[in-house]
Amino acid sequence: MHRPDVWWWGKSTPAKVETYTRWSLYSFALVEVGWLGPMTFTHLPFPFAVGLLAALCGHAALGAVTAARSLDWTRGRRDQPVRLVTAYGVITAVLAVGSLALLMRVPGDNSGNSTAVVLFVGVLMVGAGNVTLGLRSRRRVIASVFSAAIGAGTASLPVGLPGLPALITGLTVLFATGVFALTASFSVWMLDAVYELDEARETRARLAVAEERLRFGRDLHDVMGRNLAVIALKSELAVQLAQRGRPEAVEQMIEAQRLAQEAQREVREVVRGYRQADLGAELAGAQGVLAAAGIDCTITGSADGLPAPVQSALGWVVREAATNVLRHGDARRCTVGLEVTEGRVVLSVENDGVSETAAGTRTGSGLAGLRERLAGIDGTLRAGPDGQGCFRLTAEIPLPPAAESPSSSPSSVPSSSVPSSSVPSSSVPSSSVSPSSVSRPVNEVTA
């Protein structure tokens, strides 16, 4: 069985907001029973008081069910509970008018009248808040509030309230139901906004992946397009020469083979450059992404002078750490430090968005993959809470003596942008063949 704090911190941010919203609306039932229930024993005989309290408890329970199903409807998990909302609204009106009429008939001083009005307004107030959750448009919400106020003022007259008190009761109901209806509507709006923001963040991540795929596709097209066109041209020319028994066909096939090998080498270079993460670019990218998410990101240190394998490994650490900050926490601040000390480069990423309890419950495959990557260059990775409400990830990699550079000290200013490595397109020589050596023209092949 999970502890309550683990259950709470194990939820995503939208799930936390939904849980908070649900239980805030469920508290309407507690308000109804805890606040209005004791009033029934003030001026009513015990049997009537018990009966009215039971009716209030049943109304409160039905209101909680109505709120739960209405919230499920707003999240698209079930159909609109039209019948339930309608039945709950009718029961609310009957209970409010019935309790008012019952308390107004109690003989004694006028304090019973005041209790009757408070009970009447309270039932309508709670009922309007729960009914609002199941309505589709603002106009219907406003109409329900004014209908409750007009109905309350009208129903007050037959049960014994004079004209002015009945008017005051109607205005009171208008204000009270309006506040509760506005609270319920705003809670649903806030919950929808949180889910929309979370979906927008997921969409942004998917677009970033799609953009990277497009970039990789463009690089492959630039590298392979021309080479394949020349290979096709050489092959066609070799076929025509071979059909005529010309010895130049062998030369053209050798040239086509050489071009294919050259294209294969260039593809390897593109893939190698794609798989290697540049540390400077990753630091700048992480700072930009976190800033866009509203997280204050501070970077100290510079990647200048570090060997390419070390930069690539630490670049993957920065990428994974930034991803974890965005996905697994509610961070407001993130600090990235890079320093070289005693022949080792140390990268630390610290954020305040993950508690110690939640940190102990998350064991994803990303950190395991980073440990395997760092182990290939004798590096280590540590991740966990620091005991002060923050989560820290630290990667250490040994450096060869020639790689130590003063520019990598923690006091150096981080480079604002590091150009990503590009794969140069090598020129492809081709042997010329005179057009007069063949009897028909060769079809031109374009990339």
Name some characteristics of this structure.
elongated; about 450 residues; alpha+beta; about 10% strand; five-stranded mixed beta sheet; 13 helices; about 65% helix; single chain
Task: Write a concise synopsis of the structure shown.
The chain has 447 residues and is of the alpha+beta class. α2 packs antiparallel against α6 and α4 runs parallel beside α6.
Biggest β-sheet, characterized? Answer: 5 strands, mixed
Q: β content, as a range?
A: 5-15%
* Approximate shape: elongated
* Alpha-carbon distance between the two ends: 63 Å
Along the chain, the helix and strand elements come as HHHHHHHHHHEHEEHHEE
Mean of residue pLDDT?
A: 77
Quaternary state reads single chain
Given helix and strand content, the structural type is: alpha+beta
Percentage of residues in helical conformation: 55-70%
Rg estimate, integer Å: 36 Å
According to DSSP, the number of beta strands is 5
Helix count, per DSSP?
13
| Low-confidence regions | 356-363, 405-447
Q: Order of strands across the biggest sheet?
A: 1-2-3-5-4
